[in-house]
From TrEMBL:
Compartment(s) where it occurs, according to its Swiss-Prot or TrEMBL record: Cytoplasm
Catalytic activity, EC: 2.5.1.7
Domain HTH cro/C1-type: residue ranges: 13-67
Function summary: Cell wall formation. Adds enolpyruvyl to UDP-N-acetylglucosamine.
Reactions listed under catalytic activity: phosphoenolpyruvate + UDP-N-acetyl-alpha-D-glucosamine = UDP-N-acetyl-3-O-(1-carboxyvinyl)-alpha-D-glucosamine + phosphate
A molecular-function term among this protein's GO annotations: UDP-N-acetylglucosamine 1-carboxyvinyltransferase activity
Main localization (coarse): cytoplasm
Native source species: Kribbella aluminosa
Protein name listed in UniProt: UDP-N-acetylglucosamine 1-carboxyvinyltransferase
Coiled-coil region list: none
SUPFAM superfamilies with a match to the protein in the record: EPT/RTPC-like, lambda repressor-like DNA-binding domains
Keywords: Cell cycle, Cell division, Cell shape, Cell wall biogenesis/degradation, Cytoplasm, Peptidoglycan synthesis, Transferase
Pathway annotation: Cell wall biogenesis; peptidoglycan biosynthesis
Pfam families associated with the record: EPSP_synthase, HTH_3
Length: 508
């Protein structure tokens, strides 16, 4: 192997390790080697046998170093205008929450138009391994879920569970089914340390205690403990709120949850629970009151609403390529701050009259964009809990700001290192200055140019890189796109339907 090839392999291994959330020492322990050896491998200073590469790939559970089909890459011919219409698919985050919530129900759950993404696939592998029967009913993504009378938690697919942070949302449903159980540590995007303590604060009033040792969450439930006063969440997080609501859904009594997230996926969860006979007051507010049912056995059919983050992704692609497209079925209730900010920056677009999603609750519109000359906003751009600018939509404003005239300060206060990945736009000709782990200054307008780069290990920054490549002059390559497939279904194919030129390939 050449030094350059070893260096590239080392970078791939380093990124895969960080994506897994491991230190060099942790990887060394699994490989039965030293931390210094792992350090040499990642720096490209260590020759590697095929056997060692296979062991690393197995340890990291990552396509990046897989010897099978190899990682998937994208080749993008940029500088093309997009045109046509596209429908927003159903919400990723609602879909995974509803898969977890199906464990509350003894009856059959049918979910409509579920996004067939890797995050969903991992959860289905976990559910199947513990005895839940899941069946895709058609090509439209309708999914049937039938739980067993008794879950087989000891047979849980630990590898699949570790590859999704959503596994943390098993805590709320399982505490009513099991007196003691274990879950593998949650995985997911490499966005920095996320403590599970807010989840524990939300679930202790239901008698749940969790100790984290040996790569597992060890859960014990004390049935003598029940909520005696309103539960105040220490973090207005989406998954924390969902866990608390799911725990309250099977609690035979009334639970008040304050500082709750009223975000889109939480609302979808509440609408689903309503079909199960769980009355919830205050949906869409920061105080929800859950009238629980100790036993739930109902056959239900529910269609989760459309994904506002995907809608923002498509909107961003239209903006940076200066294209006129129509984005149909955009959940406007969860995009209103983003649209107001874009209007301030000079975006020219039309929106249709509002209509309801298939769940009969969520408000949708069709958005038609026109090529616009944008300018930097007066104030910094930063996220806030709903109804503020969505945390997951913030990265898209980095590439939008790069096409605008002036300087834009973007403050990602939620994650301690996601902003770092936005500096990858510099590899495509951007002028993004990292001020600290939370803040970047973006200078525009940018004339993006094609380049080859590794896919950032965080979902939204990865899509930001892909969108910049759509606007870049020449041909770009984005390597190892598994993280994009975690959150988007056939994104490259769907962008191609609008006139993009994106080719999926693998190394020989």
């Amino acid at each position: 192997m050449t030094d350059d090839y070893l260096s590239r392999i080392g970078n791939l291994i380093r990124d895969a390790r960080k994506h897994r959330g491991w230190t060099q020492t942790q990887l060394a322990e699994v490989l039965n080697t030293s931390q210094s050896a792992v350090n040499r491998i990642e720096k490209g200073h260590q020759n590697l046998t095929l056997e060692m590469l296979a062991r690393i790939g197995e340890a990291l559970d990552s396509e990046i170093v897989s010897l099978g089909g190899g990682p998937v890459h994208l080749r993008v011919v940029g500088g093309r205008r997009l045109s046509g219409s596209i429908d927003v698919k159903s919400s990723k985050n609602a879909g995974v929450a509803l898969l977890c919530a199906s464990l509350l129900n003894k009856g059959r759950t049918t979910l409509r138009k579920v996004a067939r993404i890797e995050e969903v696939n991992r959860l289905l592998e976990v559910l199947n391994s513990i005895g839940v029967k899941t069946t895709w009913l058609n090509d439209a993504g309708d999914l049937e879920i039938v739980p067993p009378a008794q879950l087989d938690l000891e047979s849980m697919d630990a590898d699949a569970a570790r590859r999704t942070r959503s596994i943390i949302m098993f805590l709320g449903p399982l505490l009513h089914r099991e007196d003691a159980f274990e879950l593998p540590y949650a995985g997911g995007c490499d966005l920095g340390t996320r403590t599970v303590e807010p989840h524990m604060t939300a679930l202790r009033p239901f008698g749940l205690e969790v100790k984290a040792t040996g790569g597992q969450y060890h859960a014990l439930v004390n049935r003598a403990i029940a909520p005696g006063k309103p539960i105040v969440l220490t973090e207005r997080g989406d998954t924390v709120t969902e866990n608390a609501i799911m725990a309250a859904a099977r609690f035979d009594g009334v639970t008040v949850i304050r500082n709750a997230s009223p975000n889109y996926m939480v609302q979808d969860l509440c609408f689903y629970l309503d079909l199960l006979g769980v009355r919830i007051d205050g949906i869409g507010t920061t105080t929800v009151t859950v009238h629980g049912k100790a036993d739930i056995d109902v056959d239900v059919d529910y269609a989760p609403s459309e994904d506002p983050i995907e809608a923002m992704s498509l909107l961003t692609a239209a903006i940076v390529t200066k294209s006129e497209i129509t984005i149909r079925r955009a959940p406007v209730e969860f995009l209103e701050i983003e649209l107001a900010l874009l209007e301030e920056m000079g975006l020219d677009y039309d929106r249709s009259t509002e209509y309801l999603a298939e769940n009969g609750r969520t408000r949708l519109v069709d958005l038609t964009t026109r090529p616009s000359k944008l300018h930097a906003p007066i104030d910094k751009i930063h996220p806030m809990p709903f109804p503020g600018l969505n945390i997951d939509n913030l990265p898209f404003f980095a590439v939008i700001a790069a096409t605008a005239t002036g300087q834009t300060l973007i403050h990602d206060w939620v994650y301690e290192n996601r902003a770092i990945y936005l500096a990858d736009l510099n590899k495509l000709g951007g002028r993004v200055k990292l001020l600290d782990p939370h803040r970047v200054m973006v200078e525009g307008p940018t004339h993006f140019s094609g380049a080859e780069m590794m896919c950032p290990p965080a979902l939204r920054p990865a899509v930001v890189a892909l969108i910049a490549m759509l606007a870049a002059k020449g041909t770009s390559v984005l390597r190892s796109i598994y993280v994009i497939n975690r959150g988007y279904e056939d994104l490259a194919t769907r962008l191609n339907s609008l006139g993009a030129q994106i080719e999926t390939f693998r190394d020989i």
